[in-house]
Automatic annotation (TrEMBL):
Region (Disordered): 32-52
Top-level taxon of origin: Bacteria
Segments of skewed composition (Pro residues): 35-52
Protein name: Uncharacterized lipoprotein YddW (UPF0748 family)
A UniProt-annotated Pfam family: GHL10
PROSITE patterns for the chain: PROKAR_LIPOPROTEIN
InterPro entries: Divisome_Glycosyl_Hydrolase, GH, GHL10
Species whose genome carries this gene: Roseateles terrae
Length: 514
């Protein structure tokens, strides 16, 4: 605790009060049970509920250029935190179960870091503290609501085109300008610079060591998307210094293969780092949505990330260097050259390690007047994800159209494809301590609370309920946050409860009649 007080003082934050800042080290743990009388499990035979529906329902929360949060730069800390709670309440109300929060947009940090400067998208000034630790608050608030939080980083971008603040002295463009290349209207860390790769890994080690994130996530920005000159000719990425050094040291790969190898090695090492530091956390990658040209379905055509971004996604899938792939399938079903379902099935077929495939949906585009898009398109794409072979989930880009219910989309989803809650899929190739049996406590004020006494703390509880005493035939599923409070239980209701651990594996079920 003393170390954390010193850290706050060094970074110029407000002093910690007792019990503050728990999100730095903990998160998602069940609240301590209050004193209460155990409700004995029923010994009567019960026609049990079905298997719980499993579907990763994620949403990207983009902080770059203030796309989703905070709504603008320079808001007071209290207003930024109020927006956090509002966005997470929207996610819970919509029955989502995960958020993917951008915490490193451009070699910066939306969390307390001694390695990189505070992001300008918080205060308007890169390097200026917002007065609190945003990621700690996001984690505490998300986990308290039973939501997963995956930390999304950009490994290579050093300055985004919308950046307005002068770079802080600790930013790589000033501390290590030899790593950084100007390309188009942005700055990029050269993937061919070994010291820059070590820095990115050090950033991730620090992040994973201090924050209880449920996943580490990278998107489609590897080598940058090509830019053109005034004559509309493609400009090559200016990595001559690192390329020349590679050749002088005896390198034999072609330049394109060397670039792919640079990215491959970082992906492999990031995966190994997550396995070392957070064995239950998932590694997610969200690449451009088209596979390598020679591996595409008939009729699919367009940009090649393999040849232009030097991203060999198919290799990463074959080697198992990720736990879920969220290919950005940002096209409507009717757009034949990039049709949604053939692309989804293609990625499912390029998955020898049977990792999760959770496609990215262009939800933001569906609420505009763009050709071929309607709000109904998103629900239709979700239904495709549920038809065999089932994808197991999806991720929306991005949060703001859902938070604002643009064109009624949020309401449509909640009343339609999200009418029932769902648990995230288990990740059986990862290891985490199991949860023990669930107990039900009747508290002094008459409320009911689910608790686990043995095993790992519950990340969430799955609670099936049925009012058989008044003839209700169907089971209803509630996903209860780790505090365990049972909402609005009625006398005579049958409850079947179990706890989920960090990999969303179910513990033993218990049945109660209250």
């Amino acid at each position: 605790m003393q170390r954390r007080h010193l850290l706050h003082a060094a970074l110029g934050w407000p002093a910690l009060s007792a019990g503050a800042g728990t999100g730095l080290l903990l998160g998602g743990c069940a609240a301590r049970p209050q004193p209460g009388r155990p409700v004995p499990p029923t010994s009567e035979p019960v026609d049990g509920p079905p298997a719980a529906p499993r579907e990763f329902r994620g949403v990207w929360i983009a902080t770059v250029a203030n796309i989703d949060w905070p709504s603008k730069r320079g808001l007071p800390a209290a207003q930024q935190q109020a927006e956090i709670r509002q966005l997470l309440d929207t996610a819970v109300d919509l029955r989502l179960n995960a958020v993917v929060l951008q915490v490193r947009t451009s070699a910066d940090a939306l969390y307390a870091s001694t390695l990189e400067p505070w992001s300008e998208y918080l205060t308007g000034v890169q390097g200026q503290s917002p007065g609190y630790d945003p990621l700690a608050v996001w984690l505490d608030e998300a986990h308290a609501r039973g939501l997963e939080l995956h930390a999304w980083i950009n490994p290579y971008r050093a300055r985004q085109s919308g950046g307005r603040s002068a770079p802080a002295t600790s930013h790589v463009s000033r501390s290590h300008p030899e790593w950084v290349r100007s390309y188009g209207d942005q700055l990029w860390i050269d993937p061919g610079e070994p010291a820059a790769a070590e820095h990115t890994l050090a950033v991730c080690r620090d992040l994973l060591s201090r924050y209880a994130v449920d996943g580490l996530h990278i998107d489609d920005y590897f080598y940058p998307y090509p830019v053109q000159d005034a004559a509309k000719q493609e400009v090559d990425f200016p990595d001559e210094p690192s390329w020349s050094r590679y050749l002088s040291q005896g390198g034999r790969l072609t330049r394109a293969d060397w670039r792919r190898d640079n990215v491959d090695r970082l992906v492999q090492r990031l995966h190994a780092l997550v396995r070392e530091l957070r064995p239950a956390a998932r590694v997610g990658i969200s690449p451009f949505g088209l596979p390598r040209p020679d591996l595409r379905p008939a009729g699919i055509e367009g940009f090649s990330q393999y040849d232009k971004l030097y991203a060999d996604v198919e290799l990463w899938m074959a080697r198992g260097w990720l736990d879920y792939l969220a290919p950005q399938l940002y096209w409507p079903r009717a757009q034949k050259p990039q049709a949604f379902e053939p692309l989804l099935r293609a990625w499912q077929g390029l998955n020898p390690q049977q990792r999760h495939i959770w496609p990215g949906l262009f939800t933001s585009r569906a609420v505009t007047d763009a050709a071929g898009w309607t709000p109904e398109e998103i629900a239709a794409q979700i239904e495709i994800c549920r038809t065999a072979p089932v994808s197991g989930g999806h991720v929306h880009f991005s949060m703001v159209p859902l938070a604002q219910n643009r064109r009624g989309l949020t309401q449509q989803l909640r009343q339609g494809v999200y009418a029932q809650a769902a648990l995230p899929p288990a990740t059986p190739w990862l290891q985490a301590p199991p949860c023990g049996p669930v107990q039900l406590l009747r508290l002094a004020e008459g409320q009911l609370q689910l608790v686990t006494q043995d095993g790992a703390p519950a990340r969430v509880f799955a609670l099936w309920r049925r009012a058989t005493h008044r003839g209700e035939a169907s089971w209803r599923l509630d996903v209860v946050p780790p505090h365990g409070r049972v909402p609005a239980a009625e006398t005579g209701e049958t409850l079947v409860a179990l706890a989920l651990n960090a990999t969303n594996t179910e513990g033993p079920a218990a049945t109660f009649v209250v």
